[in-house]
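Summary of Year 1 activities. Much of the first year was spent building the evaluation harness for sequence design. The harness presents a backbone, in tokenized form, and records the residue chosen at every position. We chose the following record to illustrate the format because it has been used consistently in internal testing since the harness was completed.
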């Protein structure tokens, strides 16, 4: 992938990632995938977790903008951030414990989670469209891992797409282990 300069290109990147994820979630699930019943998350739990993360990120961006605190993210820094996200987020050897607000403790059905994913994406895109690239690039929000560090609001939007792809790989691994 090449660096998405415009906000529209970033949205297209997210859309492509989500389409791949939804295709995998909508495919037939092997026995045990919907409720793995052990320390691994089920496909349903993963889908719900992704929805929770998308909602949380949208809220964090709104909160950061409302705080009035601003950081400088020029185009060069945004490109470096995008490259870091594209590399780090897909590295599944670096396991990250999900924070409590995005733990899928009581997930709805897979079909309901798919609907929630659609709704949270519409809400995210409405927020992104209302703010624009400059506003998204004007705030810094720390990630829970030092490896990611502080990301711009635009970086967090990008991370959502790569988070989808990270969990797409997790779903494929889960399905392969159950086949």
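For this record, the design step produced the sequence shown next.
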């Amino acid at each position: 992938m090449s660096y998405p300069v415009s906000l529209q290109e970033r949205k297209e990147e997210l859309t492509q990632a989500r389409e791949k994820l939804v295709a995998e979630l909508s495919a037939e699930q092997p026995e045990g995938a919907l409720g793995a019943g052990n320390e691994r998350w089920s496909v349903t739990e993963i889908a719900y977790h992704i929805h929770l993360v998308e909602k949380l990120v949208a809220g964090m961006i709104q909160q950061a903008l409302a705080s009035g605190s601003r950081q400088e993210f020029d185009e060069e820094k945004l490109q470096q951030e995008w490259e870091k996200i594209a590399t780090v987020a897909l590295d599944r050897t670096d396991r990250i414990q999900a924070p409590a607000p995005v733990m899928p403790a009581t997930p709805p059905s897979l079909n309901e989670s798919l609907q929630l994913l659609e709704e949270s994406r519409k809400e995210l895109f409405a927020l992104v469209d209302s703010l624009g690239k400059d506003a998204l690039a004007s705030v810094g929000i720390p990630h829970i891992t030092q490896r990611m560090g502080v990301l711009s609001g635009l970086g967090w939007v990008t991370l959502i797409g790569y988070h989808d792809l990270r969990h797409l790989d997790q779903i494929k691994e889960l399905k392969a282990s159950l086949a």
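Residues 4 and 17 are 14 Å apart (CA to CA). Quantitative recovery figures across the full test set are reported in Table 2.
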